[in-house]
């Protein structure tokens, strides 16, 4: 049984705006450039707009999932025997050994959450797949326009100037190739493993962007809310 959700929490579509790559339009060095394919896909306008549409379509699902998570947290609290507001492994083992019925209730609640999440994830993966399919053509367009000989992944460099990063250039080409994505997958459609992997990486970027936004918001609280010390 899994107590915590296996999937990343879905961040709001606005968090996509926090994903940015410094890529000034300058000549690349010796025909060599770098690009992050996942970031290029995540920055695509089609993805942001499609995610917003999916959020609207499944708004009631998100509400239900939030409610069920709160219920699950209440169930977990019953297993917290030392009052530290956490369920550690010892407490979980004790509940398992005692065949505590709360465990079955938690498992059922998680299954309900996963059932609600499934169509949302399917729609999102379908969107990511459509955009990813345009990546190769977008990359070739950038290679041709900038007369590049090589494009390497960022982690292939120990150091490189921002000027050789063509990620945003590739995103711009993707935007031309697919200005909008379909959010309704065909009934018989099934995601490929590659699409699922890219989706998970995109979701991680979005989650990280949301965390950055939250941290910035906390730092930018009005001075009036800060203690004066007087």
**Percentage of residues assigned to helices:** 55-70%
Distance between the termini: 53 Å
Mean pLDDT: 87
Q: Tell me, what's the shape?
A: elongated
Secondary-structure element order, N to C = EHHHHHHEHH
Query: How many individual β-strands?
Result: 2
The order of strands across the largest sheet is 1-2
Low-confidence stretches are: 1-13, 21-27
Give a short account of the largest sheet.
2 strands, parallel
Quickly count the helices: 8
Strand content: under 5%
**Rg, nearest Å:** 22 Å
Give the tally of structural domains. 1
Structural class: mainly alpha
What does this structure look like?
This protein has 230 residues and is mainly α. It has one domain (27-220). The protein contains eight helices and two strands; from the N terminus they run E-H-H-H-H-H-H-E-H-H. It has a two-stranded parallel sheet. Helix 2 (45-57) packs antiparallel against helix 5 (101-132) and helix 5 (101-132) crosses helix 8 (193-219). The N and C termini lie far apart (53 Å). Residues 1-13 and 21-27 have low confidence and may be disordered.
């Amino acid at each position: 049984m899994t107590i915590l959700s296996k999937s990343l929490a879905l961040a709001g579509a606005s968090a996509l705006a926090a994903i940015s790559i410094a890529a000034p339009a300058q000549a690349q060095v010796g025909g060599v450039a770098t690009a992050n394919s996942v970031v290029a896909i995540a920055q695509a306008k089609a993805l942001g707009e499609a995610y917003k549409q999916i959020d609207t379509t499944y708004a009631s699902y998100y509400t239900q999932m939030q409610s069920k998570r709160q219920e699950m947290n209440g169930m977990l609290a019953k297993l917290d025997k030392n009052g530290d507001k956490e369920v550690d492994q010892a407490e979980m083992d004790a509940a398992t050994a005692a065949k505590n019925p709360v465990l079955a209730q938690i498992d059922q609640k998680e299954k309900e959450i996963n059932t609600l999440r499934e169509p949302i994830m399917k729609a999102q993966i379908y969107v990511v797949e459509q955009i990813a399919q345009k990546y190769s053509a977008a990359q070739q367009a950038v290679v041709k326009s900038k007369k590049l000989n090589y494009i390497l992944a960022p982690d292939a460099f120990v150091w490189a100037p921002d000027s050789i990063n063509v990620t945003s250039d590739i995103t711009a080409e993707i935007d031309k190739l697919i200005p909008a994505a379909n959010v309704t997958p065909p009934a018989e459609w099934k995601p490929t493993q590659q699409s699922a992997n890219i989706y998970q990486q995109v979701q991680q970027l979005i989650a990280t962007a949301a965390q950055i936004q939250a941290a910035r918001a906390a730092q930018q609280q009005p001075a009036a809310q800060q203690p004066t010390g007087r």
